[in-house]
C-alpha cells in the first residue's frame, strides 16, 4: 500500500468505478521518473477504496514493438464510454509531432491497446493533453492543446470524434489563446502555455474548463467559461486562478459520498511532483477550494 505522497506521478486522473457493489478508485498519471527523459515502459494504474491507501502500480498500457512513440508518455486519462474504457494520452517520437492517441480496453486496469488508425490530432501540429467531452446530444468531442513551442501563444481546440472514438469529424475549432487569461503569465519572449484541459458542467448547467499555464507564483490552474454553455463557446477567462501556487493539470470527480473533489500535481518541480486531492464546492456559479494553503484532503 502507498499514500499519494509516495506515488511519483504528474497529471493525475482518478476514475471512480463501481465493481460488484463496491467502489474502487483508479489513479493514472505521467510516470515521474520518465516524464522528461528516458524511455517509459508505458502507463501504470493504482487502485484504492478510500483515496488514502493505494495498491500498485499495475501495468495499464505496455506498447508493442511497433508502436509509433518511444518517449514523453504524458497525461493519460480514462473514461467509460459505451461498453469500453478509453484512454487518451500524449506521445512523442523523433521526427513525429507530439500527439494525442486514443487507446481502448475492456477494464479500467487495462490492458489498453491503440485504437483507430493512429493519433487524432493534426499530423503537423504539436499537440498534447486531449480530454473527452460529451455534448448535450451525447456526441463525443476532444478538447486539446496546441503547444506554445509551435505557436508561441498556446491554443485550445475542440474537435468532433466519431461515435466509436476511432477518428475525427471535421476540422478542429479554436476556442481560445492562453494569453486571454489575465492570470496567465508569458515568458520574456511572449510565450504562453496551454496545458491540461478538463471540462465540467456546473449544477446550473454552465460549462467551465479547468486548464493550466504559468502564473505569477509558478504553475497554476484557472477556469474558462463557455458563454453559450456549449463547447463552441465563446469562451471567457476568470481573472484569478483557481489554484495559484506551483500546481495544476487538474481534473474533477465525485467520490462515492458525492463529494466534489479535485486532483492536481504539486509542486511542479521535478522530481518532487506528487498527486494531491482537494475538496471543492460550487458557489455563485464557480468552483471554490474548501481547503486552504497546504491543508489538502489527501496527499
TrEMBL record:
Site (Important for catalytic activity, responsible for pKa modulation of the active site Glu and correct orientation of both the proton donor and substrate): residue numbering on this chain: 129
InterPro entries found in the cross-reference section: GH43_arabinanases, Glyco_hydro_43, Glyco_hydro_beta-prop_sf
GO BP term, pick one: carbohydrate metabolic process
Pathway stated in the Swiss-Prot or TrEMBL entry: Glycan metabolism; L-arabinan degradation
Gene Ontology MF term list: hydrolase activity, hydrolyzing O-glycosyl compounds
Family annotation (SUPFAM superfamilies): Arabinanase/levansucrase/invertase
Statement: the UniProt record of this protein carries the keyword Cytoplasm: no
One matching Pfam family: Glyco_hydro_43
Keywords, in A-Z order: Glycosidase, Hydrolase
Family: Belongs to the glycosyl hydrolase 43 family.
Name this polypeptide is given: Glycosyl hydrolase family 43
Organism classification: Bacteria, Bacillati, Bacillota, Bacilli, Bacillales
